[in-house]
Design goal:
alpha+beta; 24% strand; Alpha-Beta Plaits; 35% helix; 419 residues; elongated
Length: 419
């Protein structure tokens, strides 16, 4: 590999620009985080979307707000319903450039209105607030890195597509489709802006994640007068849950977790409805297929009971993202670029998932924790390290420079995907 330890003139210019932009990045992120964008808060999402589109319109790129596909879920009656969220923000630039990058992020958070709305200065170089790290800070440094890159002489050598989604935190298959479309349009490398860990470590391999809702219907009857005429959906669900939880430990790295059983009613009525809601994690494609096959087997057993029928909804909305030769080569290039900035970057495997899983499944190697440094995400203790804004934006700008001038061979790394 070409020596990446030295900074080029373009690298130095980007670093100087981004160091000067640190306060502005923090201020912008605070403004975005002050707008509640819980995944189902359509009003808040639709308020922020045009603000983001306007901010990204400063790039030499086309910015589009595309209607988001409805998010499907199973309601308390066991019926599939569609919920509208907000627009998918698409940004595209220089599609004919020799190097192509797909970049992604999300602008929703896990916090519904009224649950976590305050931004506080913790006084030790950290800010506490909803979405500061996950991932409005990441969206901010993505934009700033691109602006710094486009201010240099290399911009015509690299094109990009950006997908910003409004419902990543609830795992919308439709948003995954937008990522897949962008990744399959010719991208060599993917860059996603989830926060890195509070130690500075970045994500290596990721498990895949699935969400399922199995709906079981039985037959209601008077529990005292005609118990034998009923067919209990709750009983069938109980057996199903034992079977699902029994899958744990049967295949390395596969976990199943039943989160809830909905349904039933008064104790004098044989319950005719039960909904089993659960998640699954798997380390690779083969393990994910095994888990899916076992779930279908248990579903078939449940619906083979006398008087029980049903359906199930869901699947692996984030496919597994294991390490391979391409991922390892990309991680090494990122680490070498970080070293030029005095950073010692390490990549740790995790059971968590993100949009990088879908980009990998579309055949594009990617690094998916290029965002700000932070911690305690998905809690009201979420915080961001303010010094990381300029640091991580500079890392991204240098990666873009090096992809554009060939110091990082994006096409060569992608060619390793099948190894």
């Amino acid at each position: 590999m070409i020596d990446l330890s030295n900074l080029s003139r373009e690298d130095e210019a980007a670093r100087e620009r981004l160091n000067a932009r640190s306060a502005g990045m923090i201020s912008q992120t605070r403004n975005w985080a002050s707008i509640n964008t819980g995944s189902l808060n359509v009003e808040g999402l639709r308020k922020l979307a045009p603000m983001l589109a306007d901010a990204f319109s400063e790039l030499d790129a086309e910015v589009r707000l595309e209607p988001g596909d409805p998010f499907e879920s199973v309601n308390a009656a066991g019926e599939t319903e569609a919920t509208e969220t907000s627009a998918v923000i698409r940004v595209s630039s220089r599609p004919n450039a020799p190097v192509q990058v797909v970049m992604s992020g999300h602008y929703d958070t896990v916090f519904p209105p009224g649950t976590f709305d305050t931004i506080r200065d913790l006084g030790d170089g950290r800010l506490n607030g909803p979405g500061l790290a996950d991932m409005k800070g990441g969206l901010c440094i993505m934009r700033e890195a691109l602006l710094a890159f486009e201010a240099g002489p290399l911009k015509d050598k690299l094109g990009y597509q950006i997908v910003m989604t409004p419902d990543e935190e609830i795992g919308n298959f439709a948003s995954s489709r937008a990522l897949t479309e962008a990744a399959r349009s010719g991208a060599h490398i993917g860059m996603t802006y989830e926060p890195c860990m509070d130690t500075g470590a970045m994500a290596g391999g990721r498990k895949g994640s699935a969400v399922f809702d199995i709906v079981l219907h039985g037959r209601a009857a008077h529990a005292g007068r005609a118990k034998e005429e009923g067919r209990s959906a709750i009983e069938a669900a109980a057996e199903l849950v034992l079977g699902l939880e029994g899958l744990n430990g049967q295949r390395d790295g596969v976990t199943i977790n039943v989160g809830a059983i909905d349904g039933g009613g008064p104790v004098n009525i044989v319950p005719q409805l039960a909904i089993v809601r659960f998640g699954a994690r798997a380390p690779d494609a083969e393990a994910a297929q095994w888990a899916k096959d076992e779930i279908e087997r248990l579903f078939a057993r449940a619906t083979a009971r006398d008087g029980i029928h049903g359906h199930f909804h869901g699947g692996f909305y984030r496919p597994p993202k294991p390490r391979n030769a391409a991922q390892q080569a990309l991680f090494e290039a990122v680490a070498a670029t970080g070293k030029a900035l005095g950073l010692s970057l390490v990549f740790e495997d995790t059971g968590g998932v993100c949009e990088g899983n879908n980009i990998f499944a579309a055949g594009v190697p990617n690094v998916d924790t290029l965002g700000v440094m932070g911690g305690r995400i998905h809690s009201n203790e979420e915080y961001v390290v303010t010094d990381s804004f300029a640091e991580r934006a500079t890392l991204s700008a240098l990666l873009l420079n090096r992809l554009a001038d060939g110091r990082i061979n994006g096409a060569g790394i992608k060619a390793l995907m099948d190894r």
